[in-house]
Amino acid sequence: MSPSRPRCLKTVSRVVNGELGVSPARSDRVDAAIAALGYQRNALARALRPGQVSHTLGLVMGDVANPFYSAIACGASRKPCGGHCYLLPEVRVGTPIVFLDGPPAHVEADTILLDNVGGARAAVERPLPRAPAHRRRRGRPADLHRDGAPARLPRRALRARNRVRRGPRAPGSHDAVTAETAVRELLALPWPPTALFTANNRITTGALRATWGARRPLALVGFDDLELAELLTVPVTVVADDAAELGCRGAKVLCRRLGGYDGPADRRVLQTEVVTRGSGELVA
Description:
The protein is of the alpha/beta class.
């Protein structure tokens, strides 16, 4: 090793860490080299030094398929991030990234989505229109379309058949508690809905709680299946998807990238299926 090598490494370290002792001209040269190479500081490696704080949270779970553990993970990871621009440096240096069930914002990356559009259309065109007495439907379709599709698709499909009236919608709900509250408010209206379309299985759970023991039958179709849906007094009709296949496809795409494939970002859509069980065919 040449005598100048250790001094050169120390110069880079000083520039990266904002230390004194480096001329402006040399500092500019180091910054230019860092930008050209796409260098980023490895905070995890730095944290391995004794006394350093990693700023990293570890979460060890027994079974991610258990709803109890998944709820813990959801609570621990909940944070608004405002898009995915923070991933741009990793994308630029070639770090493989795959987005599942949600498109990236301001980032070009491989994406695998569920057919939310087709599922929503099938939900409002198949079970619900079989009940001609339905004239008032309420819901929050905007919560469903996580692939950037038109949020008003379910209402458009119903209006095309003259089967929906204008009126108030439930406020945005993303969990069972807020969904239950929203549905109870809808049922208290002078002209309550006769059918509900719920955007995910947690919202469906809240709707079931709110409508339990209702005097009038209320048609219900939910997006995403839920445990024991077929064992309820009135089995729940759902738009089902294969979450395991979503994860499998994502892993395959990622492995392909790691194997050297450097083609353009790919976008794939997995199909959904309406599972008819009875709740969507109820007539008020």
